[in-house]
Amino acid sequence: MPTLRKWGFLLSDYKTNRVFYTGVTNNLVKRIWQHRQKVVSSFTSKYNVEKLVYCEIFDSPLEAIKREKQIKAGSRGKKLKLNISINPHFEDLYLRITK
Where's the GIY-YIG domain (predicted)? Predict the structure, then answer.
């Protein structure tokens, strides 16, 4: 049975691109949809953090969780720098993966 890939992701708010949320999932489209629909009352729904601005793919859940913790431990400035290195215009990558 093939292993599902794990995704590490970074979400940003739409207004300022200064509020970030880091997470891990094995179904990126579904997980981002849940954040956008505010399925659960949480940090992301409170601060409207629902724009997918960065993601990485891992073959192992342990690798994904390790990277998630590494990103979460960083400052907002480090998250901003990480995002700008890959997605300088803060494009919503969700729109690309759902086409």
Answer: 1-81
The Cα-based distances of 97 to 12, 24, 49 in angstroms read 17, 16, 18
Domain CATH for 66:
3.40.1440.10
Contacts of 59-63 with CB under 8 Å at 24 or more apart are 59/3, 59/5, 59/6, 60/6, 61/6, 61/24, 61/26, 63/6
> What distance in Å separates the CA atoms of residue 19 and residue 95, rounded to the nearest whole number?
20
- Read off φ and ψ for residue 16, nearest 5 degrees: -115, -15
15 secondary structure, DSSP code: T
Interval 48-66: pLDDT, tens: 999 999 999 999 999 999 9
How wide is the angle at C-alpha 44 spanned by C-alphas 12 and 10, nearest 5°? 35
Q: What is the pTM of this model?
A: 0.87
